[in-house]
Give the backbone structure.
Amino acid sequence: MPGYIATLRSLIGSLISLAAILGIATIMGVYLGIDIGTSGTKTLAMRDDGKILATATAEYPLSNPKPGWSEQDPEHWWLATIKTVRAVLKAGKLKPAAIGGIGLSGQMHGSVFLDKREQVIRPALLWNDQRTAAECAEIESRAGGRAQLIELVANPALTGFTAPKVLWLRNHEPKNFDRMNQILLPKDYVRFRLTGEFATEVSDASGTLLLDVRNRRWSRQLLDRLELDPALLPAVFESEEVSGRLSQLAAKKLGLPVGVPVVGGGGDQAAGAVGNGIVRKGVISATMGTSGVVFAHSDQVQYDPQGRLHTFCHAVHGQWHVMGVVLSAGGSLQWYRNQFAATEVALARRKKVDPYELLTAQAAEAPAGCEGLFFLPYLTGERTPHADPNARGAWVGLSLRHTRAHFVRSIIEGATYAMRDSLEIIRKLQIPVKEVRLSGGGARSRFWRQMQADIYGERVVTTNSAEGPAYGVALLAAVGTGAYKNIVEACQVTIKVEQTASPNAKARKTYDEAYPLYQKLYRSLKDDFRIIAELVNR
């Protein structure tokens, strides 16, 4: 039978090639990737050869009812899903019957609480919500200490994770906790609306702090110690496995056939890594978006004993990854643009260019190292390596010589130093680094690409894949419905390296000398950051 299937595939491939030569239109499978982001939902349609046929995005609001709180109404995600799927079908002139599968990605760690009537109890608490410091301490205590917690679930308790949010609900909104019948992650709430199934997959579930990451199943030991009922949690799938099929109600709303398969998908970081081809040992990614992520594939479970990196299941079947997260990487430059760059924004509007192009051109006027000016990018606290919600942004080293160019360059350097923090821990775990693939806003700028090569001390590359998590889960949908043997094969066929940059020896020397001082500045200011936070929160 395997030989027959291989022969049939070869024959089909030959017929497709012949049809292309003769100019005959061929019918290919189409897969949808849906990414439930923090600021909006993005949907794309991908042909099974990897070609993107159409994309659409719908934005929605974020609520901050108190300092450090971050919430969203899950209904906005569902409405955005309907809107973007319909928009993609229209833009791509796609026949609904051509859709062979759907993959889901989304912001990690968020908590959607449903009651017995399957209704949302309260707004979802998001990944960047910082209200759960006391609950993190409670989890560590109940687990038997930080080291024991890492042994159970491969990660320490962090304020952004899901488990502390569940305990916060129990501690602060007991009536809502008593109503709770199901806990879902953001993308998995959309899965429920699509299929009627309560399901998740291993990569996103890893970020709940409730998954036994080594064995890829819920941790009964930790759930018992936290006194949480395992029935509150959905079934766990591998990322390419079919987790449900489009219901009649959802199909009508989206304009798709009933029964379209919906695969497990992935948390946004694992899905984005798949979309960038980070599916084998030695290839890592550095994604410079609002947050920054350094992501490394691993064939086995590896974790930092100090818990500075996350160790999660990968969206690659039976594999894992380690990941460092910078909360305000590109977000620091975005903050500067919004608050201090009105002149550049207005000029960019007149020239019809991206204002970031003008800012990076301005930054290039200052020398590497910014003549002693450092920027600490901790505008929303920090995760890797400090796990400090009280950390604050800072400029240090100002003198009369410094100009706007120095300020902008120092922000870009500071964000990239913060990414190097994660890379250094990955190196110490002896995870091989042969190639760094860049994505996000920091990959679009030639200036920033070169700076990353210089600060990381590694060759960096970009690929033909720029659509991130939505593309990754579309590939997973193609794998899960039989278009490819596995995700490694799918990435090899569809993702190619396009641009490369190698370290400049002079700039690398400057950054290697400055980096230890950058690290020391946080240690020097750590206690002051805590005092500042106490003053603000009185």
Observations:
- The first helix runs from residue 2 to 22.
- The first strand starts at residue 30 and ends at 36.
